[in-house]
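Exercise 7b. C-alpha cells:
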C-alpha cells in the first residue's frame, strides 16, 4: 500500500533528522528526500500508476509529508546551527589569564638620552642644532680657537693626529669657527657630538661626547651667560640645583669661567658621587675672546659672544649614577637594559 510506504519513508526521514549531529547532515538528508532521485520525489513519480480518483488524496498526503519533513529539517537545522556556534565561540575563546610572549622593549642609550634632553632644552631657548666633522683640521680645532702651534695650552688636550694638519677633533669647540665663518650674527647654536682624546680610565674614554654652545649678538654680557647656564642646569638637574661660577682659563674665552652644580644625588651634603664635596665640576664657558671673533671674520667692535662646552658622558654618568665611563661603550645588554 502506498500510504504504508509513505509512512515508512516519513518515519525513516524523521529518525534520520532526529539523529543528525551536524548542520551539513541536514543538507544531505534534504537531498535524500527532495533530490531528483530522493525518496519523496520517487513517491510523487509513483502517482502516475494511480487511478485518477486516488490521485488527489494521495497528492495531498505527499504534500503533507513534504511539509512535515521540511519543517523538522528547518527546526533541526536551527538547533544544530545554534549548538555549532556555541561550540565555536567556546573553543575560540581567548584565555586572558594565559601568559603572553613578552616583547623586549628597547631604550635609548644614556648618551643619546642626554643629547635629546639637552637639545630639547636649548631648542626651547632658541638655539639651532648644528654638526661638524669629527675628522677635523688643526686650524679649526686649535688655530682658530686661539691655540697656536707649540702653545702650552695644546697640552690640555692629548690629541690624536692623523697627519700634521688633520686630527680627530679633541673638542666640539672646533665647530665655533666653522659656524662663525658661515653665519651672520646674531645667532645661537649648539653642537652635540663625538670627541677624541688619548685618555683612558674609569672617567675618561678615548671616544667621548661633548656639547658646545655659542651665542653671538651685539650686547652679550657675562650676565646672559650666567642666566642661560642657570636655566639649563636647573632644567637638567632639577629646580633646587645650586650653581657656582669660578674664574678659569681657556684660550678661546676672556674672561673664562668654570661652572659647578650642587650634587643632584645628595643635594650638596656630600656623597660618593661628588666625593664628599657636595658640588660637581661640570663645564667650561666664557665670553668669546675677540681674537677668535676676528679670526673668523666677525667684527669684534660690534659683536660679542659667549660660549660653553661640556662633557656629555660625565652628565649621563651623574644623571644615571654610573661610575665607570666604559659601560657606555661596551654594548653590554645587561647594562643597557637597566636604562629602560
Ligand atoms: N673646549 C673645552 C674643553 O673641551 C670646553 C669649553 C670651555 C668650551 C670653554 C667652550 C668654552 O666653548 O667657552 O675642555
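Sequence design result:
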Amino acid at each position: 500500500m502506498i500510504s504504508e510506504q509513505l509512512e515508512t519513508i516519513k518515519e525513516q526521514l524523521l529518525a534520520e533528522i532526529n539523529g543528525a549531529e551536524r548542520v551539513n547532515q541536514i543538507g544531505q538528508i534534504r537531498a535524500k528526500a527532495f533530490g531528483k532521485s530522493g525518496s519523496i520525489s520517487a513517491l510523487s513519480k509513483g502517482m502516475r500508476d494511480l487511478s485518477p480518483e486516488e490521485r488527489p488524496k494521495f497528492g495531498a498526503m505527499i504534500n503533507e509529508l513534504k511539509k512535515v519533513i521540511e519543517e523538522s529539517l528547518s527546526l533541526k537545522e536551527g538547533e544544530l546551527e545554534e549548538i555549532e556556534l556555541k561550540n565555536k565561540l567556546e573553543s575560540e575563546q581567548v584565555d586572558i589569564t594565559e601568559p603572553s610572549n613578552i616583547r623586549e622593549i628597547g631604550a635609548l642609550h644614556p648618551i643619546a638620552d642626554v643629547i635629546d634632553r639637552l637639545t630639547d632644552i636649548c631648542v626651547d631657548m632658541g638655539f639651532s642644532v648644528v654638526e661638524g666633522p669629527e675628522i677635523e683640521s688643526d686650524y679649526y680645532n686649535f688655530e682658530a680657537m686661539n691655540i697656536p702651534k707649540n702653545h702650552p695650552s695644546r697640552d690640555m688636550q692629548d690629541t690624536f693626529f692623523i697627519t700634521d694638519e688633520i686630527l680627530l677633533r679633541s673638542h666640539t669647540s672646533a665647530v665655533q669657527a666653522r659656524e662663525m665663518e658661515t653665519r651672520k650674527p646674531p645667532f645661537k647654536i649648539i653642537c652635540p657630538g663625538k670627541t677624541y682624546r688619548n685618555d683612558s680610565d674609569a672617567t675618561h674614554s678615548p671616544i667621548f661626547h661633548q656639547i658646545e654652545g655659542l651665542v653671538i649678538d651685539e650686547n652679550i654680557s657675562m650676565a646672559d651667560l650666567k642666566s642661560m647656564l642657570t636655566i639649563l642646569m636647573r632644567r637638567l638637574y632639577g629646580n633646587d640645583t645650586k650653581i657656582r661660577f669660578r674664574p678659569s682659563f681657556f684660550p678661546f674665552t676672556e674672561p673664562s669661567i668654570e661652572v659647578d652644580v650642587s650634587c643632584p644625588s645628595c643635594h650638596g651634603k656630600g656623597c660618593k658621587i661628588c666625593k664628599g664635596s657636595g658640588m660637581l665640576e661640570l663645564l667650561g664657558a666664557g665670553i668669546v675672546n675677540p681674537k677668535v671673533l676676528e679670526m673668523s671674520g666677525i667684527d669684534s667692535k660690534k659683536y660679542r659672544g659667549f660660549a660653553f662646552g661640556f662633557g656629555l658622558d660625565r652628565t649621563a654618568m651623574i644623571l644615571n649614577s654610573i661610575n665607570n665611563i666604559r659601560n657606555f661603550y661596551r654594548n653590554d645588554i645587561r647594562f643597557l637594559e637597566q636604562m629602560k
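Instructor comment: The first strand starts at residue 128 and ends at 129. Residues 54-91 form the longest helix (38 residues).
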